[in-house]
Amino acid sequence: MTWALGTGAAVALGGCQESRAPRESKDSKVTLTFWNGFTGGDGAYIKKLVEEFNQTTPGIQVKMNIYLWADFFQKVPGAVISGQAPDVCVMHLDGIPTNAARSIIMPIDDIAQSLGLKSSDYTSQEVWEGGLYKGKRYGIPFDMHPLGMYYNKGVLRRAGLDPEKPPRTGDEYMAALEQLKGKGIQGHWMAPFLFTGTFQFESLLWQFGGELFDPGVTRATFDSDAGVQALTWLVDLVKKGYSPPNVGQDADFIAFQNGQNAFNWNGIWQINALDEVPGLEWGAAPIPRIGPQEAVWGNSHQFVLMRQRSPDERKLEAARTFIQWMSQRSVEWLASGKIPVLQRVAESPEFKSLEKQGQFARQASYIRFPPAVAGISDALAMVDKAVNQAVLGKASPAEALKAAAAQATQVVRDNHEKYGD
Question: How many Å apart are CA 397 and CA 238, to the nearest integer?
Fold first, then answer.
C-alpha cells in the first residue's frame, strides 16, 4: 500500500511532489536507522519529530541513534566499511565533501529531483551549493545555524544602557563596552577556542573583506591585513580590559547567564538554554558590524544517505519519504534553535512567530559558510590554533596567523593530492 504523509503544522518543501512510502505487504514494514549529533537542547526536538513520524507513517519506522558530533564522525566510516551503516544521517555542510570523497555517503540527485528541489527555493545559494561535491548532490539542506549576539538586559540596565537597543555598529559596541567597564563590568568575555572564538574571528575576517582561502582553496589567506585587523580587534578586548584573560571553554556563556557580562556572541543553538535560566532577561540580535561589510559565520545541517554494501530500493524510497516529512516539519525543528533554509518557511507566519530565531534570521543574506572541500576541517584547525595563541597572548595576531596560514596551506595542498580535487 502507499502510506500518505500526515497532516500537521507544516510548511511544505517548495515545489515538492506527493511523497510515497514503499509498497509492502500487510505484515512487513521498512525500518530506517537514523544517526545524528543532536545531543544538546535540540535533541528533544528531533526525538519528538521522529516519534511523530513513526506514528504518522506506520509502514516506515525510524530507529534513531544520537551521538556527540565528534563520536558521530568517528563511528560513521567504520559502520560503512563494516556493512553496518545507518540509512540516513545529518551532517554539517563542511563534512559532506570529505565523506563524499571517501565514498562514505552516496549521491542523492535523484531524491532532490523527485522532491522538486531547486536553488530558488532556498534562502541562501551557498547553503544549497554546500550539498554538492564535484557536481553531484550529496546533501539536502535542513537548516542554518549562525552566530549571533545575545545581550543581558539586566546588566545593560545596571550600566545605564538601554536594554532594548543593543549596539549595531562597531562604534556603538565599543561605546557600550566602555560604559560597562566604567561600572566595573567586563562586557564581552573573549573565548580562545573554536566555540566561539574562531567563529567570531571568521565573522570579522569576512567583515573586514578577507577570506580564509584563495578561490581554489589551494592557499590559506586568513593571515591577510583583514585577518590581522579581525584578530587584533578580538585580542584588544582582553588588552583593554573588556574581557578577562584566559577565559575557559563556555565560561563566557556561563558568565552571561550569571550577569557577569553583557554580550555573548554565540550560536543560535543556545536560545533554549537561555530560556530555561530562571529570571534571566535577555535578547538576541545580529552581531554588530565591526568591519566595513556585514558577515557572520554559520553552518548548515544537511540530510545525507550512507553508502550501503547491499542497497535496498525499498529503504531508499522510505528515506525519501522521511527526508520530505522532516523538511515539511521544519518550523517545528527551527524552534530548537535554527533558522530556515527554505524561502517559503522563512516567510511563513509560523516562523515569524519565533521572535528570537527571527533576529538571527536577519543575517540570512550574509551568512558565510566553511569552504566545502574535502579535508577542510584539518586546515581549519590551524585557524583555531592561531586564535587560541593570540587571545592567550602567546603570539601577536600577525605572528599567530602567519604561522597558522603556512600550516593550513600545506594541509590543503596535501588534501588536493589525497582527494584529487
Answer: 13
Taking 70 as the pLDDT cut, the residues of the chain under it are 1-27
The Cα 278–Cα 301 span in angstroms is: 30
Cell numbers standing for residue 271: 536560545
Q: 36 near 306, Cβ under 8 Å?
A: no
Instruction: Residue count of the chain, please give it.
Output: 421
**Beta-strand relationship, 132-133 and 136-137:** antiparallel
Helix (H) and strand (E) counts for the chain? Answer: 18, 12
- Say how far apart CA 335 and CA 343 lie, in whole Å: 17
- Give dist(CA 140, CA 115) in Å, integer: 10
What is residue 266's three-state secondary structure? strand
Position 335 scores a pLDDT of 94
Give one DSSP letter per residue of 15-57, joined into a string.
Answer: TPPPP-PPP--TT--EEEEEEE---STHHHHHHHHHHHHHHH-
Ramachandran angles phi, psi of 330, nearest 5°? -65, -30
Cell of 167: 549596539
Taking phi over 0 as left and psi of -120 to 50 as alpha, with beta for the rest, 115 belongs to: alpha
For residue 420, the Cα-to-chain-centroid distance in whole angstroms is 27
Question: For residue 262, how far is the Cα from the chain centroid?
Answer: 24
C-alpha dist (Å) from residue 297 to 207, 258, 262, 367: 10, 26, 21, 6
Q: Would you state the pLDDT for residue 374?
A: 96
β-sheet with 88-92: strand ranges across: 60-66, 30-36, 88-92, 301-305, 140-141
pLDDT number for residue 21 = 45
Q: How far apart are CA 257 and CA 174, in angstroms?
A: 22
Closest CA to 186 of 233, 232, 228, 152: 152
Q: Note the pLDDT of residue 3.
A: 37
Query: How far is 166 from 159, CA to CA, in rounded Å?
Result: 13
For residue 240 the three cell numbers come to 583593554
324 grid coordinates? 520530505
CB of 205 closer than 8 Å to CB of 291: no
Give the DSSP letter of residue 284: E
Whole-angstrom Cα distance, residue 94 to residue 127?
A: 10
- What is the model's pLDDT at position 421? 73
Q: Is 116 left (phi over 0), alpha (psi -120 to 50) or beta?
A: left
For residue 168, what is its C-alpha cell? 549595531
Which of these, 198, 391, 369, 191, lies nearest to 295 by C-alpha position? 369
